[in-house]
Amino acid sequence: MNLHHLLTQREADGEPIRVGLIGAGRYGTMYLAQANNIPGIHVVAIADINVKRAEGAFELVGWPKDQIAPDIATALRDRSTAIVANADELFDVDIDIIVEATGNPIVGVKHALRAIDTKKHIIMVTVEADALAGPALAKRAEAAGVVYSMAYGDQPALIMELVDWARTSGFDVVCAGKGAKFLEHYHEMNPDNVWENWEFSKELTDSGQLNPNMHTSFRDGTKAAIEMAAVANAAGLVPSDTGLTFTPGDVEEIATICRPADVGGALAHEGTVDVMSSVNRDGTWIPHNTQEGVFVVVKATNAYVSGCFNEYPWHPDPTGQYAALYRPYHYVGLELNVSIANAVLRGIPTGSPTGFFGDVVATAKKDLKAGEFLDGEGGYTVWGQLVSAKHSVTTGALPVALAHHVELRNDVPKGGIVRWEDVIMDDSLAQALELRRETEALALEENLARS
């Protein structure tokens, strides 16, 4: 509760937190919009292979021109900010923390490893990298004495805050989750028909400002699966092997829907993650839906607590045993500094993998033939399905993050999970594959520990 005080003290001492930001997309730009208003923060540099995009981000947020430095050395000396094309420049200079916001899981793993090797804290905005190999990265970071953290402002870190609230208050977590718009045909969506499933104007979709692959991932279930895998791995929750339910419902129904099926809910078991749909199956919007929000569902520990659930307007389930805590919005990059401050000033993450419990596996959008190339997240060939890590490892499933520009050696039917044996892996992925194998080994360790 005293982060701002600690930041103010750093400012007074002339020792601001030195931040290196990789990626000048939406998230990075949102953080820049706040950074100059936060005491104790010095954004030393922003790295983006598209320098013009980074320059445009500074213009968008009204960054003072006299605070833009020609290079990192000048930025460190003058407390200004440099723009560089090569992120490697950030790792060998006096920076405290790296924010990885490229959105590319392979590149994200590479940058996280460089940060860990050079003793810098890492905030992993690229949740795709966290879902692929976050458990191994967190383990390496711990050994190096640095923090590996989810990014506050994105939904997984906010969900973890609710999970921490629940457990600190003495509750067992029944379900942790979020809301999203979803219809059953979305799993077949591709970049050619994506705009038919969004509410954007034709003028905007024709403008080229929107990325059709990214927005396909947001709708076809992949992005939701990736985010909930990150939550599962941080909270030690086990997903269902049949994937997320995307059950329609409103805020008052969270505790009724996100409870086990044997008591009338939608879940395969307690201690899991799920996503609720903000629209009915006919496509009509649900009033007071959970679209932008996050939640945690807890279970009464005794009859007295159940009585409290029913005495207050907390919208418990019909049995009075389950109740939810809900946050309606996430402010994305505008909230990022909560993670930065916690990592540097307190040495703690705003959510970090504790093991390998959930995975996102490549699932065929259509009948796929040997010789075809997979095009990864938000493409034409596969979508990402959430399953338990145990199921993923024992069946040899291919993570969706590695299903990009790889050739099929076997046919895969529509709806089938692509397996390692079905693809010819690219040698350029060696580093990501090494971290992935370390992550999968953690799942085997978990199974041995429980047996």
Automatic annotation (TrEMBL):
Domain of life: Bacteria
Start and end residues of each Gfo/Idh/MocA-like oxidoreductase N-terminal domain: 17-124
Pfam families: DRL_cat, GFO_IDH_MocA
Oxidoreductase DRL-like catalytic domain location: 153-336
Alphabetically ordered keywords of this record: Cell projection, Cilium, Flagellum
GO MF entries: nucleotide binding
InterPro entries found in the cross-reference section: DRL_cat, Gfo/Idh/MocA-like_OxRdtase_N, NAD(P)-bd_dom_sf
The protein's name in its UniProt record: Flagellar biosynthesis protein FlgA
Organism in which the protein naturally occurs: Arthrobacter nitrophenolicus
